Amino acid sequence: MAGDATSLFRPAGSLADGADPIRLTPEEAGWDWCGLAVIELAAGERRRIELGDAEAAVVPLEGSCHVEASDAAFELEGRTNVFSGLTDLCFLPQGSKITISSAGGGRFCLATSRATKATEPRYYPASGMRVDLRGAGQATRQINNLLTADVPGPDRLLVVEVLTPEGNWSSYPPHKHDELTRCETPLEEIYYFEIDGPGGFGFHRTYTLDGEIDETVTVRSGDLFLVPRGYHGPCVAAPGHHMYYLNVMAGPQPGREWLICTDPEYQWLWEAWETQPTDPRLPLY
Fold this sequence. Notes:
Number of strands: 22
Number of helices: 2
Order of helices and strands: EEHEEEEEEEEEEEEEEEEEEEEH
Largest sheet: 9 strands, antiparallel
Radius of gyration: 18 Å
Mean pLDDT: 96
Low-confidence stretches: 1-6
Helix content: under 10%
Structural class: mainly beta
Shape: globular
Distance between the termini: 37 Å
Strand content: 35-45%
């Protein structure tokens, strides 16, 4: 996997494609597998997209939409915004030609990965989604398991949402997944951020032990951070502003496993948290 430390942070607007806030392909990211687009539709607008060698998940960020493919159609109820509740979503396999339309308008994420084979289109209701709480105390966060390894459908694509309450830390302790070992699988990863409230911001860190990458950036709504390798975390939500991020992951290993290695310097935190309560504000919805 490739990556340039000077280009890992992609602030809002830097990846705009016409009316759409974000269009990131694997080539533009400088790696091999995953991409992301955020599509903004006016009321009644239709958008046609050809996936080519990619597979994709359509995740409503704001509003509802209708998704059509050659052999499937889905009505996604969506949500008011990412802080208001869970969303349903759909998956489209490699080679699909899809049309997305929205009667009321909205913003919709297209999380993509190159695929090695075509699978079947699927719909996932919000009511069936597993929600986990991870960490403890001020490092508690909420994980919405959209397309984790235990959710059937994709060939390579993994997608999760993380909600971090204002003042809390997430993606912590720092972890990595850039080697093939007994306890780790190589996965590229995209962080897409939204922050609740005007003026909201947070922080994100990615680093490698050799010092080649050591980036700590201020993140705001619409920002992306690319993780080609190295430890990532924490993500920190500023007081007064909840943080949301959507993670897209994919890599060369079949099976869609998500195996990670914690930075040994911080491994002790997992044991310390076993005796601490989780943040009572979670789940947020």
